[in-house]
Design brief:
9 strands; alpha+beta
Length: about 300
């Protein structure tokens, strides 16, 4: 019923054979994450290989939850209303009773880069400390969930991007010794985390390698080496991501081309047009005409 999760009814749901499960959510292409809500009857659950590359950051907002610890004991969590991180790659096993769960799905490499190491040591689950920003994120996620059916894609993108930005700041703040740990990250994971940081700030024309290295807690030289090892360039990757994002907007929305340039990190429209033409072989307006958004005109 839920992709990436093996679930077995338990308790009354197992006895009666009447199991209820519900999954709703919205995906943000711009933010590169999804926000989902699951509601289910009592069950035992374990993440499988389909969910192994993801980390969930969210809230258990009602029901009861138990987690099997590293010794094999099922431990009840005092988690209702608090934020948590769950590492699906560790295949944690849960016992849930009438649980309602609201969460962001983040790439594991992104969370690892922000924290400078394993997102959830030992058992695959970690409750986040109560902070002012954490409470704002908690309230923001709940507010989005109440508007699931009414949000258009552009509004959903903006809301989820704001949630992802708050989550990133929250995770960075949990890693006081982050610099030493990030230096030890595999270069592939560091590049993946850097690309996620770029994606968060493609709209910002002032984004620099110094900003990225500071966010990730590594030196500029280390970041350059990580990209070089994968035959990539930091500046070139940022340029490609900006122009790819611009093409997505031209294909999928009716936003003005000037607005798309700004959203893609180009304050100078002429520079945007030249860069877009060099990369895609067409001007932005010709690209939209060939591949993009075509509103349906009423019959005359």
């Amino acid at each position: 019923m839920f992709p990436g999760v093996d679930m077995t009814p338990s308790g009354e749901a197992r006895v009666t054979g009447q199991f209820h499960g519900e999954l709703i959510g919205i995906q943000s292409v711009s933010a590169g994450v999804a926000l989902s809500r699951t509601i289910s009857s009592s069950n035992k659950a374990r993440f499988n290989a389909l969910g192994g590359e993801d980390v969930l950051l969210g809230i258990f907002d009602s029901g009861r939850l138990g987690l099997r610890d590293e010794r094999g004991h099922m431990k009840e969590l005092q988690s209702t209303g608090t934020l948590y991180i769950l590492d699906a790659g560790r295949a944690p096993e849960f016992q849930a009773e009438q649980l309602s769960n609201l969460y962001l799905t983040l790439p594991r490499s992104y969370a690892t880069g922000l924290l400078g190491g394993d997102p959830t040591p030992r058992c695959g689950f970690r409750q986040l400390p109560r902070t002012s920003l954490g409470q704002i994120l908690h309230d923001h996620l709940l507010a989005i969930s109440r508007q699931f059916n009414d949000l258009g894609q552009e509004d959903a993108d903006a809301a989820i991007l704001a949630a992802k930005s708050m989550a990133a700041t929250l995770l960075r703040g949990m890693a006081p010794a982050r610099r030493d740990k990030v230096q030890k990250l595999d270069h592939k994971d560091l590049v993946a985390a850097a690309r996620q940081c770029m994606s968060d700030r493609l709209h910002d024309p002032s984004l620099t390698v110094t900003d990225l290295s500071r966010t990730l807690g590594c030196s500029r030289a280390h970041l350059y080496r990580a990209f070089r090892e994968l035959d990539m360039s930091v500046a070139e990757e940022l340029r490609i991501m900006r122009l790819t994002r611009a093409a997505e907007h031209l294909r999928c929305s009716n936003r003005e081309v000037g607005d798309i340039a700004l959203a893609s990190g180009y304050a100078d429209f002429s520079a945007f047009t030249r860069a877009f033409h060099r990369y895609h072989g067409l001007s932005p307006r010709d690209y939209r005409e060939a591949y993009g958004y075509k509103p349906i005109r009423p019959a005359s």
